[in-house]
Amino acid sequence: MGNIIRLVRYAASVSVAFLMVFAVISCKKSTTAKQPLRILILGGTGYLGPATIDAAQARGHKITMFNRGRTRPELYPEVEKLQGDRDPDKDEGLNALKNGEWDVVIDNSGYYPRMVKASAELLSTRSKHYIYISSISAYKEPNPVNGDESAPLATMEDPTIESMGAGSVNFGPLKALCEQAAEAAMPGRTTIVRPGYIVGPDDPTGRFTYWPVKFDKTGEVIVPGDPNDPVQFVDVRDLGEWLVKLAEDSTMGIFHATGPANGLKWGQLIDACILASSAEPKPTAVWADTTADKSIGIGVYPIWISPRGDYEGFHTWNIQKAINAGLKFRPIEETVKDTLKWYREQEKVENGRTRLAGPSDEREAKLFEAAKSESR
Description:
This protein has 376 residues and is α/β, with parallel strands linked by helices. It contains ten helices and eleven strands. It has a domain at 34-195: 3-Layer(aba) Sandwich (Rossmann fold).
């Protein structure tokens, strides 16, 4: 009887072990898409492109890139690369795209409607789905508070202008026109994604990166605004993964792509930067009253924008539609920590992406003294 009981127990333990191994294997398999897609990315080596390719490859999709071959051409040697120009009238233009079929096109390098029209029309009979990456800047200013995707779009007097203009004044209107060009070429088969600030590792703009790096270097850091001011952005990795999901699900429509899901206060982001800092003792924030000092306004410090006047709605966009379509957000602490780690690695690399936005050291010193005097 004892031997029988031992055999039963052994068989049971083997069964449990087998089930555990099977469960692990099943979980690993579940990361691969049921139906691999052929995805053409117009761009691919800048910032959002690599995050999208990483996410797509993790799901088992086949990637083709089309670009000029100038920005980080060493990336993704295993990926099919087609070389040309978004301008069909320049050099080889779109000739490399005249052959081939793809399930989905992801256009993250379209800035002028004539060029988006040319690529979308050329691919319209050889692709089922066109995902165009627009911008939250496509909306008319001032932005509404908690505005959804039906808010009025920005316009420009001459839609044929192919220049961003002084201060990039034409960026938003041109993005809106690009959206229309894509939809006109592939009606009912387009997805328009309007991101806010895209942040995280590999960011060449240095906007979001400025804050974790600043708090990692300095004992006291001047911070504009109020801790309760709203702020919105999306981690580039979350956005890349979501674009792949939109492709897999054949999701059409217009979506905001910013976050996080439950909203974020400016002070929470600053707290995350302090937490990630390696400085000892931990740095402190010196909050500057921007209502009293107009010199600490729009364009001086990155990411933050005063939620007053014409900019009241800038960081309050409604993102429920994107959440319903599967957009997910990692914790802000993870984004801050990973961004700081990535930046430190870039400092050790020749020609690393170490640019930081924000005021010059001289200007910041003056702003710091003014903020300290105000707090006395």
